[in-house]
Amino acid sequence: MPVPVVLVTGFLGAGKTTVVNHLLAHAQGRRIAAVVNDFGAINIDAELISGASDGVVSLANGCICCTLEGDLLRTLAALLRRDPQPEFIVIETSGVADPADIVRNLIDPVIWKEAPLEIVLCVVDATTSAATLNDDALVRAQLRAADVVALSKVDLSDEVHRAQLRDAVRALRPAAVVVDALNGEVPVELVFPLDMDRAPMPRDVAPRRPAVERFETLSWTSEHPLSLPRLQQAIGKLAPKLARAKGLFETVEQPGRLTLFQLAGGRATLAPGGEVKPGVPRTRIVFIAEIGVLSRAEVHTIMQACVEAA
After folding, report:
1. How confident is the model at residue 212 (pLDDT cuts 50, 70, 90)?
2. What residues does each domain of the chain span?
3. What is the β-pairing status of strands 32-36 and 64-67?
4. What are residue 192's phi and psi, to 5 degrees?
5. Among 302, 290, 128, CA closest to 214
6. Superfamily for 215-309?
7. HEC string of 17-76?
């Protein structure tokens, strides 16, 4: 039986991983395979998916998670060979990916027969301005591929702003269903069809656009715990140049415990990140910036001060 594919797209920091976690947590007995395609040498997103790590990990609810190693088609083929076979495959794209390229692969007749594309879900940060949707070519491409648009972080914007944003979304993608998704809570029934015998509808795909490298990642690791006050100062210096940042680190103040750090839309958050694992650097942070805006030397100098202070 064909295994439907759900494609989750959205710009850097929109909240895609939170949405995927919600779908996995509310699988309701469905066997779901989650494929994470992170941007950068350190795959933080795979660790944020219900504690998964590199490779294929079986989750407590019968779901599995894996990272996108090699090309997409080889990853799908490996998942389809699993026993038992997943009932759905959820692919979380990188925040810098144009989903049209992945859609183009998925609508190949050979792939469609085994793993048809069921739905494209685009996650949009509700604090995003309507002007950004119209001015950013990548954001427009992500929206125009969407069947469902989920507005995340709705608690951080007022109703007037959200109404303007919904209007802008509908202007770009009139056919899409727009829903609020506080804490990633996308209605499961919109994503996983109840009628498993229904074949997904064929879809058009946008013409291939010339690839333009826009973002780069600068990864920083350390074997030493960090001083939290100095780290906060360092992030304050780096934030104006960053599109996104995320990572896990141990602090002098809480030895043996990891802290999860995320920066998106100019907002930094800290949350418990579990225990330090042997054989893994105590600090792993990925910084994402426009190409040429930030140098590796600058990142190293600013971040190394956090270690020296410890």
Report:
1. low
2. 5-191, 215-309
3. parallel
4. -110, 110
5. 290
6. CobW-like, C-terminal domain (3.30.1220.10)
7. HHHHHHHHHCCCCCCEEEEECCCCCCCHHHHHCCCCCCCEEECCCCCEEEECCCCHHHHH
Q: Which amino acid is at 304?
A: Q
The structure's pTM equals 0.74
In tens, the pLDDT along 33-48 reads: 888 776 544 444 555 5
Query: What pLDDT does residue 151 have?
Result: 97
In one letter, which amino acid is 132? T
Unique residue bearing structure tokens 């109703």 = 159
Architecture of domain 5-191: 3-Layer(aba) Sandwich (3.40)
> At residue 245, what is the residue type?
A
